[in-house]
C-alpha cells in the first residue's frame, strides 16, 4: 500500500476522481509494492484501483489507451526506499572516498529497480527468488555486476557469504529469456588472468541472452587504510587482459556474430595500445561503462571539423582533462588548431590530488584540484571541462564547490561539454546555441 501524493490535472486518474491522500492498495487485483508493479499493471487499458480514502475502501474504474500514464504521483520515485548494498566489496570506490563529503555520495545502492529504470548495475545478492520470479514475469532486462563466476572468489571479493550462491540467479534469468548486460571490475591478483578466462567462458554459456559485457580496471584511491591491499594494473597486466578478452571476442564473433565482451578504454590507455576502430565497438552497448568513449569522441570530432565554419577570429581557449584522456584531448586540440587559423588551445593534464594520483579519469577531477593546478596558467577566454566532473543537472563538483567558485578563483569562465565530438568542437570554437 502506498500513499498518492498528487494527481495530474486532466489525467485519467484525475478524471476518475482519484484524490491526493488516497492510499493505493491494489491495481487490477495485484498488490503494488513499488514502481515496477505500478508501471507493469498500469499499462493495461482497463484499470481497477482499490483505494483507501479516510479509512474507507473504495474502487475506481478507469479506461485509457494502452501505456498512457494514469497521472498518479507518489512521495518517492520508487514508491519505496532505495535498497542499499549488502556487500563489502574489496574494490568498492565509496569505501575509498575521503571523509567530509556530502552524505549522498556515501550511499551504496544495489537496487534492481534502478537497473531497469536508470541502467544501474546490481549484484543480485540482496534479491530473493520472489524478486527473480517478478523479473521473469515482467520480462525485464537487467544489468548485473558479476565480477567473477567462481563462487568462492565472489564471496571473498564481495565479503558477502551469499554472493556465490546468488550466481544461480544469473543462469535462471538467462534460461527464461531475460537479456543480461554484465560487468566485471577487474582486480590484479584476484579475478584477472585465468579467473577472468573462467568468468568469460562461463558467461559465454548464456549467449545469446548475454547481450553485452564490460571489463573495467579497478580504481584505487589514496584512502585505503585498513582495506584490502589492492594493486593497480601495470602496462603488461593491462595488455594481458586485453589479449584474454580478445580470445573470447574472436570465439563469440565466430559463433554468434558479435564480440559481446569489451575492455574499457582505460585498459588500452594503461597498456599504451592504440584504440580500436569504430567497427570494433559494434553498437557501443557498454558506452556508459567507458567502452568506446574515446574512439567515438575522436571520430565525431574529426567529422565535426569537416562540417564546421570558422570566421577566422583570434581565439584562445584552455581544456582541463585527466591523465588518462590527456593524449587524446591534446591530439584533438592540435587537429582543431591546424584546421582553424587564429585558434589556440592550451590543454592541461590535471593530477588527482584529491583522490590520489592513481585515479586518472577526467570525471573524478575536483574543483580544488582545478584551482590549485591552473592558477596562474594561460587559460584564454574560456576554460573547458568535461560535464562528467559535475553532478548530473548541476554545477556542483564532487568536492561540493561550484562552477562559480572555480571561475572566481581562476578569473575565467567555465564551459562544460559532454563526451561528444561535435559539442567539444563547438566549445573549442566558442559556438553558442
Question: What fraction of residues sit in β-strands?
Answer: 15-25%
The Rg value, from CA coordinates, equals 25 Å
Measured distance between first and last alpha carbons: 47 Å
Q: What is the correct CATH architecture of the largest domain? A: Alpha-Beta Barrel
Helix percent band: 25-40%
Order of helices and strands: EHEEHEEEHHEHHEHEHEHHEHEHEHEH
- What shape does the CA trace take? globular
SSE class: alpha/beta
Number of strands: 14
The profile of the biggest β sheet is: 6 strands, antiparallel
Mean pLDDT: 92
Number of H/I helices = 14
The CATH topology of the largest domain turns out to be TIM Barrel
What is the CATH C-level name of the largest domain? Alpha Beta
Number of domains: 3
**Poorly predicted runs:** none
Describe the structure.
With about 425 residues, the chain is α/β, with parallel strands linked by helices. The protein has three domains: about 1-75, Pdz3 Domain (Roll), CATH 2.30.42; about 95-285, TIM Barrel, CATH 3.20.20; about 295-430, Rossmann fold. Helices cover about 30% and strands about 20% of the residues. The chain is built from 14 helices and 14 strands. The strands form three sheets. Strands 1, 2, 3, 4, 5 and 6 form a six-stranded antiparallel beta sheet that branches. A four-stranded parallel beta sheet has the order 7-8-9-10. The radius of gyration is 25 Å and the shape is globular.
Amino acid at each position: 500500500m502506498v500513499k498518492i501524493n498528487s494527481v495530474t490535472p486532466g489525467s485519467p486518474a484525475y478524471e476518475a476522481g482519484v484524490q491526493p491522500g488516497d492510499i493505493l492498495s491494489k491495481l487490477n487485483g495485484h498488490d503494488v509494492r513499488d514502481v515496477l508493479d505500478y508501471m507493469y499493471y498500469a499499462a493495461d487499458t482497463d484499470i481497477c484501483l482499490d483505494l483507501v480514502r479516510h479509512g474507507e475502501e473504495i474502487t475506481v474504474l478507469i479506461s485509457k489507451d494502452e501505456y498512457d500514464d494514469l497521472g498518479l504521483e507518489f512521495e518517492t520515485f520508487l514508491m519505496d526506499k532505495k535498497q542499499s548494498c549488502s556487500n563489502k566489496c574489496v574494490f568498492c570506490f565509496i569505501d575509498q572516498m575521503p571523509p567530509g563529503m556530502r552524505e549522498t555520495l556515501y550511499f551504496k545502492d544495489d537496487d534492481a529497480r534502478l537497473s531497469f529504470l536508470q541502467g544501474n548495475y546490481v549484484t543480485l545478492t540482496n534479491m530473493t527468488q520472489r524478486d527473480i520470479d517478478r523479473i521473469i514475469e515482467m520480462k525485464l532486462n537487467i544489468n548485473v555486476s558479476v565480477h567473477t563466476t567462481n563462487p568462492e572468489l565472489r564471496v571473498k571479493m564481495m565479503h558477502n557469504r551469499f554472493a556465490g550462491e546468488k550466481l544461480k540467479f544469473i543462469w535462471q534469468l538467462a534460461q527464461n529469456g531475460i537479456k543480461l548486460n554484465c560487468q566485471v571490475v577487474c582486480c590484479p591478483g584476484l579475478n584477472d588472468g585465468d579467473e577472468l578466462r573462467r568468468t568469460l567462458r562461463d558467461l559465454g554459456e548464456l549467449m545469446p541472452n548475454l547481450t553485452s559485457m564490460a571489463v573495467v580496471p579497478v580504481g584505487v584511491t589514496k584512502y585505503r587504510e585498513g582495506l584490502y591491499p589492492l594493486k593497480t594494473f601495470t602496462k603488461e597486466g593491462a595488455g594481458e587482459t586485453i589479449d584474454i578478452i580478445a580470445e573470447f571476442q574472436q570465439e563469440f564473433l565466430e559463433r554468434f556474430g558479435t564480440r559481446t565482451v569489451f575492455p574499457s578504454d582505460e585498459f588500452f590507455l594503461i597498456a599504451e595500445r592504440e584504440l580500436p576502430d569504430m567497427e570494433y565497438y559494434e553498437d557501443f552497448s557498454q558506452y556508459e561503462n567507458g567502452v568506446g568513449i574515446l574512439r567515438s569522441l575522436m571520430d565525431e570530432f574529426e567529422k565535426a571539423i569537416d562540417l564546421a565554419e570558422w570566421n577566422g577570429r583570434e581565439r584562445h581557449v584552455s581544456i582541463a582533462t585527466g591523465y588518462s584522456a590527456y593524449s587524446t584531448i591534446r591530439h584533438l586540440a592540435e587537429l582543431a588548431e591546424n584546421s582553424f587559423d587564429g585558434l589556440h588551445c592550451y590543454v592541461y593534464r590535471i593530477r588527482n590530488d584529491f583522490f590520489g594520483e592513481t585515479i586518472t579519469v577526467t570525471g573524478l577531477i575536483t574543483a580544488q584540484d582545478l584551482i590549485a593546478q591552473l592558477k596562474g596558467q594561460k587559460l584564454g577566454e574560456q576554460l573547458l571541462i568535461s560535464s562528467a566532473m559535475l553532478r548530473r543537472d548541476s554545477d556542483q563538483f564532487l568536492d561540493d564547490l561550484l562552477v562559480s567558485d572555480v571561475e572566481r578563483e581562476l578569473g575565467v569562465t567555465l564551459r562544460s561539454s559532454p563526451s561528444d565530438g561535435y559539442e567539444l568542437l563547438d566549445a573549442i570554437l566558442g559556438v553558442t546555441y
